[in-house]
Amino acid sequence: MTDEQLISEFQQIEDNFNKAVISNNVEEIKKCVTEDWVLVDSQGGIIPQQGFFKVLEQGTLSHSTMTKEILRVKVYGDIAVVTGRGQNTGTWQGQPLEADEWITDVYKKENEKWLCVLTHLTPVKK
């Protein structure tokens, strides 16, 4: 598969992940991630999925938009490292949220489906 084909394939996977996140529906998000998926960000550090799901279910965090441009994909057997830039909007603790971030998602192929095992976010410097 060429680099362009890989980027196209993972752009679709990421677009589906984005749709799941902006649904603010934990069951939809679970379809995109492994049981041990974690989120790493500059403010919360390593956030286990239970913590992420809890703030969604409580309404503390919600997303209204989320886009990602996939810039690089490297596949190592059943592991893929996907790097891109993403923007999202929503609310956190009732306050407007807007983010522009570098994103690295690590995927694992399970039963012929790519599932995210780790998402790492780095804010883009203004």
Helix content: 25-40%
Low-confidence stretches: none
Strand content: over 45%
Number of E-state strands: 6
Mean pLDDT: 95
Number of domains: 1
Number of separate helices: 3
CATH architecture call: Roll
Strand order of the largest sheet: 2-1-6-5-4-3
Shape: globular
Biggest sheet character: 6 strands, mixed
CATH class: Alpha Beta
N- and C-termini, Cα separation: 35 Å
Which structural class do the helices and strands define? alpha+beta
Q: What fold name goes in the CATH topology slot?
A: Nuclear Transport Factor 2, Chain: A
- Helix-strand topology string: HHEEHEEEE
Radius of gyration, Cα only, in angstroms? 14 Å
Summary keywords:
Nuclear Transport Factor 2, Chain: A, 126 residues, six-stranded mixed beta sheet, alpha+beta, globular, 3 helices
Could you walk me through the main structural features you see in this protein, from its secondary elements to its overall organization?
The protein is an alpha+beta fold. It has one domain (3-123): Nuclear Transport Factor 2, Chain: A (Roll), CATH 3.10.450.50. 28% of the residues lie in helices and 56% in strands. The chain has three helices and six strands, in the order H-H-E-E-H-E-E-E-E. The protein has helices at residues 3-22, 26-30, 49-58; strands spanning 33-41, 45-48, 61-76, 79-92, 95-110, 113-123. The chain has a six-stranded mixed beta sheet with strand order 2-1-6-5-4-3, covered by helices on one side. The longest helix is centred in the N-terminal third of the chain and has 20 residues, at 3-22. 20% of the residues are buried.
